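=== RUN LOG ===
request id: a7f3
mode: sequence -> structure
chains: 1
length: 148
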Amino acid sequence: MHGHKHLIYPSSVPRYVFHFDVKRFLATPLRKQVIAVHFLLHGLHHKLPGDSLRLVFPPLLTLPVVALLHEVARPCTPLDGPFLAGVLTGYILYDMYHFAVHSPRFKHWPLFASMRKRHMSHHFQDQKSGYGITSPIWDAAFGTLCKK
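=== RESULT ===
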């Protein structure tokens, strides 16, 4: 199971796309561009976690990713339409939940209060843990729980 966690870990997209080691690109000709794009796509969100304009991944940037997933899924299943609908629905629900976890409007709701505390630990204490925004279950299973 450990070798395939990237296939089943629901938070693998934020973990491997937004939290990759930017320093690996320091020796490449595109280092400045990679660092700038990474900062614009996710670094600003970590610098300004209370900025309501930086709480969700821009939908226009998501469309190419969803289109690629759709093209990959099409030959694998006759259900590529429902697959695409599921990916889009999951993305929207995930971003809505992420917005609510960051929003002070929901900080007193019991469900969001515990998730907010854990997610803010990810932002301010250890960015290499606490990837599971919607649930601590996967972080517990894969050893990425935030330290207390």
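=== NOTES ===
The two ends are 26 Å apart (CA to CA).
Residues 2-141 form one domain.
=== END ===
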